[in-house]
Amino acid sequence: MSIQFGAAVGYWNLTNTAVFYKLKDLYIFQPIGIPVKFSTVIIVIEDENDNSPNFTYIEKVITIPDDILIGSIITTVVATDMDKPNTNFSAIEYNITGGNGTGYFDIGKETGEVTTLEDLNRKPSNKSQIYDIIIQAQDKAFPFNSVHESMIIIVDDAGNNPPVITFPEDNSFLKMPEVCMIFSCI
């Protein structure tokens, strides 16, 4: 490793004349055999917010029943940031930023837990509802770095609705033969 220091009389190029110790983001420089007033120089490397978060866990497609309770956790997303730990550069915050499910689902800003906000039961419809939400993970620095990912949530009918029999509007009756096989269509 080589390092240069500016001085009033010029520059010192200290290659192979010093010992470097690295302790995380702290470098300690100790000259060897060079007469100087101070024998140790400490160099602290400051982190920049140069990394965006990355999702390490996100389910792309989730299927849930339509009778799920309001406030239920349906999944948890996880993102990490490679910037210096325990700083705003690496602290992650989650948001739902778009999609057609923004009024039906929420996400814990700190936890990444995706929860239901509304009653999803679509009585008497038995069709599945499909929601596409956009989840954002961003660091807490200013300006922030972020990443977005799409998640599909399919809400299936839980089969908890009783059958409904509808009659023709003119209240006519169905006619069937006197002899009919069991389980046959009429």
TrEMBL record:
GO cellular component: adherens junction; catenin complex
Location of the Cadherin domain: 56-165
Bilayer disposition of the protein: Single-pass membrane protein
GO terms assigned for molecular function: beta-catenin binding; cadherin binding; calcium ion binding
Cellular compartment(s): Membrane
Domain of life: Eukaryota
InterPro entries given in the database record: Cadherin, Cadherin-like_dom, Cadherin-like_sf, Cadherin_CS
Gene3D superfamilies per the UniProt record, alphabetical: Cadherins
Keyword Calcium tagged: yes
Keywords associated with the record: Calcium, Membrane, Receptor, Repeat, Signal, Transmembrane, Transmembrane helix
GO biological process: adherens junction organization; calcium-dependent cell-cell adhesion via plasma membrane cell adhesion molecules; cell migration; cell morphogenesis; cell-cell adhesion mediated by cadherin; cell-cell junction assembly; homophilic cell adhesion via plasma membrane adhesion molecules
Protein name from the UniProt record: Cadherin EGF LAG seven-pass G-type receptor 1
Species, as recorded: Holothuria leucospilota (Black long sea cucumber)
